Amino acid sequence: MDWSPLILTFKLALITTLLLLVVSIPLAYWLAYSKSRVKPIVETLVSMPLVLPPTVLGFYMLIAFSPSNAFGNWLDEWFGLRFIFSFEGLVLASIIYSLPFMVHPIQSGFNNLSTSLKDAAYVMGKSKFTTLFKVLLPNIRPSLLTGIILAFAHTIGEFGVVLMIGGNISGKTRVASIAIYDEVETLNYDAANMYSLILFGITFMILLFVYLVNGGYLKRFWQ
Amino acid sequence: MISVVLQKKLKSATGDMQLDVAFEIKKGQLATLYGKSGAGKTTIFRILAGLLNSDQGKITVNNTIWLDTEKKINLPPQKRKIGFVFQEYALFPNMTVLENLKFALRNNKDDSFVKELIEIVKLGDLQFRKPDTLSGGQKQRVALARALVQKPEILMLDEPLSALDFEIRNKLQQYILQVHREFNLTTILISHDISEIIKMSDYLIELDHGKIIKQGLPTKVLTQNKVSGKFQLHGEILAMVNQDFIFIITVLIGKEIIKVVADADESKKLNIGDKVIIASKAFNPIIYKID
Fold first, then answer.
1. What ipTM, to 2 d.p.?
2. What CATH number is given to the structural domain containing A31?
3. Is the domain defined by B226-280 classed in CATH 3.40.50.720?
4. Which residues are CB-neighbours of B118 under 8 A, at least 6 positions away?
5. Domain ranges of chain B
6. CATH topology of domain B2-222
7. Which residues of chain B does A219 touch, with a Cβ-Cβ cutoff of 8 Å?
8. How far is CA B161 from the centre of its chain?
9. Residue B90 and residue A127: Cβ atoms within 8 Å?
10. Is the pTM of this model over 0.90?
């Protein structure tokens, strides 16, 4: 069996999740505490991937980054970046596609924290930055864990966006979900079954882990 | 000396309200803000601490300007030297008692003062515990000690004891008075409890709908032009029972329940939940020692 689609899938999920974490913490912080008028618009945009067919997202990214138009061409010439049919493109698409799964838990984590924690830190002379890293984030660990795991699991499960923007290039863009589709197309049901079983098992384990940790079952077990 | 002039338009549950107050508190005083909920007490606190902006205002603390909307001066909360005790304690759940106190240090060098504070509020045995494992009274002691770590110019207490029962409340009142005197603090308290106010404060500011309606000595403000009794007790009406021509009124004073007789006219003005004074002139109390 060819393991490369599975390895590629987990590599993609890992890189996407790390980058998403960096992007989502400031974004969720802003969404939780800002009173700006553009906030509803930003909230809508963040949530769009929840309801929009992934093919729509993939289609527009395909158009935008195509080297045959000005923007795609500019990216290619200035930065040597090609987002079409490349791993970088998959990462970018995955970040957008999984954004709500990371942002929403973190945002609701911030919202559920009593504002007096933040106020107390400010009154003690602590900067916003110190307050975020020493007070707010350590107290929303379950939300962070939920966000990380959901984004990771969701990236493993994506199909439509990958197919649109990445295609099916072995070792580059052929992730496990695409490989399953490919094997079924060629009536190779055994290989499809192997990939499917592995994905099923791993995603089950990942989600189970979240529920065990956030439900406090592991702590009770250790005590 | 703290001098405060504030104006702010507020949206409250009962519609728009204009907060418009001016008061002064002398150095070393323990002043109380008193009034119904929604009168603007907490808003004044938040503006004083720099956590909320005012439409117009000027705050001067010991000759330093903290806020002057005309000159566009508005110190952030980080730069105002304030010790703030929140109603819901606001202890950081991820830190132990000791870490909570140390976090409040401006520069992490000298923690001898932290140790001293832990002694004063008797938290020695609890210093390595997380806040979640403490009782309400213990949490509030931690919050009080934590507010004192940075040697504030003003100590602000937002209904610090309202969630605690009577005995713990009594003890904590003692702690607050002790640190107020020991560290020569200027303290501002928000309180609903009349016995607490009379026991603790030197100065009382009574608010209603965003305006100051009375200020002065607590005993004077609370009993202004009412009675000149020799014997006065403050309490709250728990029940009123009509018996023919008279009403039997049950009043909670401290933790004692007392029944008082009132005639129909008098009782018309009274409702359950009202704060009242029970006073008597020709009265000769007998004192018994309890063994």
1. 0.80
2. 1.10.3720.10
3. no
4. B97, B98, B101, B124, B127, B145
5. 2-222, 226-280
6. Rossmann fold (3.40.50)
7. none
8. 8
9. no
10. no
Report the alpha-carbon distance of residue A113 to residue A118 in Å, rounded. Answer: 9
pLDDT in tens, chain B (291 residues): 899 999 999 886 677 888 999 999 999 999 999 988 888 898 999 999 999 988 999 999 988 899 998 998 899 999 898 999 998 889 999 999 999 999 988 876 677 888 888 888 888 888 899 999 998 888 988 998 999 888 888 999 998 887 788 788 888 888 889 889 888 899 999 988 888 888 889 999 999 888 898 888 888 887 765 555 567 788 888 888 888 788 889 888 877 888 888 888 888 888 888 888 888 776 677 778 777
CA nearest A140 in B: which residue? B94
**Domain that residue A93 falls in:** 4-222
Which residues of A fall within a CB distance of 8 Å from B51? 119, 122-123
- List of chain B residues whose C-beta atoms are within 8 Å of the C-beta of residue A122: 50-51, 76-78
- For testing the chain A interface, which of B103, B107, B148, B188 should be mutated: the one with the most A CBs within 10 Å? B103
Residue whose C-alpha is closest to residue B56's, from B91, B119, B134, B4: B4
Q: What is the DSSP letter of B260?
A: E
Residues A157, A161, A166, A170: what is their CA dihedral angle, to the nearest 10 degrees? 30
Count up the domains in chain A and report the number: 1
- Which of B84, B130, B142 has the most A C-beta neighbours within 10 Å, making it the best mutation to test the interface with A? B84
